Structures are given as structure tokens and as C-alpha cells.
Give the backbone structure.
Amino acid sequence: MTEQFDEQMRVESLGSSAFHHVPVMCSEVLDVLMEAPAGVILDATVGGGGHAEAVLTARPDLTVLGLDRDDAALAATAERLAPFGDRVVLHRSAFGDLSTALDAVGVNRISGFLFDLGVSSPQLDQADRGFSYREAGPLDMRMDRRQELTAAAVVNEYDEADLARVLRWYADERHARRIARTVVAARPVTDTAQLAELVRDAIPAPARRRGGHPAKRTFQAIRIEVNGELDQLAGAIDEAIRRLVPSGRGAVLSYHSGEDRIVKHQFDRAATGGCSCPPRLPCACGAQPTVVMARRAGWTPGDDEATVNPRAVSARLRTVERVERQLETP
């Protein structure tokens, strides 16, 4: 394999050293992928390459295909993983285009996969990306800066009902209607600092004192809407499972309930083969499971990691193993 880059990448113009990635639950992810057969590990959200570096270091018989739609993330990963040479392939793609991306780089089957969902620390820390509610920056929030939809459009152009829907669906925001009404009344909203202040003012004072920054959920919901994250997730997980070789391992790190519900549902469906028979009765519908789940409840970070890396606190890791049976032809 050779290191490959989308023609859109501008590696030479990016300050990749600023994209420092601290991988969440790295030891737990390694425990999963260390049991995978030799071959290709798909890192569907490679970010700054922290998990990929750990995998490549621990398993010399593995190569990593890293996907990401953020050009800055790919530039940083190229620098970080350069010592591994042709054991690394990088490709600019959203995980929603997983099948096309795998075909484009000539990867038919994979030995394992990892989806580390959500926004990375460097994206949050760079105010000019617009993800942060703690610093003033443009209303952007695009992971792929080639796309047209930005946070500015969501904040300033969605009607009140649609904006409230986004906040409820993607962040379980209890005060979605109040926030939407406040934001619409204040238009035009010009930057992230103004948006964060509006959200804070819209939430009742007692609620502002609980659960971290009052704008956290709103920013999360708008980011998910801008990037279409949940719309892509179910199909991408299904395709990754379908591409696994027998005994291949899969892992997904999610960070909020909406993501985790989708992951759990797709894993459950693969583990039952989509069986529709009544619970506790033998299957009569002929469903064929494609995976087994290691632990139905998943794993969460230990206290030590949560203390060192507060952004890991909400993470949940779910894993599967491909069962030994004939694979479908892609």
C-alpha cells in the first residue's frame, strides 16, 4: 500500500503541528483491535491519528486506512504517521461515503474498523473553525470546508420550529424552544461568542448551574446538523460490518445519546440478523447473525482518564466481532 491523498488536499499550506490528537479510550480500543486478524484496519474518522499510531505500533502485521473529511486532520495525520511508511493509506472522505472510499483505494475486505465519532480536540480549540462556545469565531462548524452549509445558515436562516427541532433531536435540549425563540429574535447572529451568550440567557438560571457550559448542547446539535453526522452513521456501520473478514473486530466510540442509540441499534440488528421473532422464543424467521457483541452495555472511560481528559467523560465504546461464516460479495 502507498500513502494516497485526495487531490483536494493542500498539505503544504496547513499548520499540522497545531492538530494534536489525544485518543480517547486508547487502551480499550487496542484491546479490541489486537484480536483482529492480520490485514487492514479501517480508521473511519482518523482525526489526528492517535488511535492509528497506537495500532500501527502494537501490530506490525496491520496496515491502516484512515479516512477523514477534514483537510487539517489529514495533514496532521500524514506528519504523525510518516514513520510507518507504506503501512498507512490516507483518503479524504466522509464515512458516509465508505463504500466508495474503500473501492477507490482498492480495499475489498478489512480486518477491523474504528469510528471515533464527534469533534476532535483540535477542532474545538481552534476558534476559527467555529466549533467552540468558549471563544469568539465564525459560525462555521464544517468538518469538510468544501461544503456549502455552515452554522451561520442554520442559526440565521432556519425558522424557529426547525431550529428547535435540531436542538431537541441532536442534543436532547430541554429548552430548545426557548433557545430557538431567543436566537431568532436576535438575528443576525454574527459569531460563536454571541450565540453562546444568547443560549446562556435563554436558559433558566437554575439550569445554567448544572451540566457544564449552558451552550454545549446547542453547539453540539448545530454541528451535527451542519455535517449530517447522524444521517450517515447507520449505513456506514452496516457497510463496515459487511466488509469485515471472519473474526474481524469493530469498535465505535460515541459521545452522546443520539449517536449511541444508532450504534447500539445497528450492532443489535447485526447480532440478531434482523430477527423479528418474539423475544425468548427460538428464531423461526431464518435470520442469520453476522456479528457477536462483546458487551451489550459497552464501556465508558475509567476515572483516571476522565480526570486527565475531561472531553472523554461522555464517551461510550461498543464493539463487535464478525462471526465465522461466508461473507457477502461486495
The longest helix spans residues 257-272. The CA atoms of residues 26 and 129 lie 26 Å apart. The chain has 14 helices and seven strands.
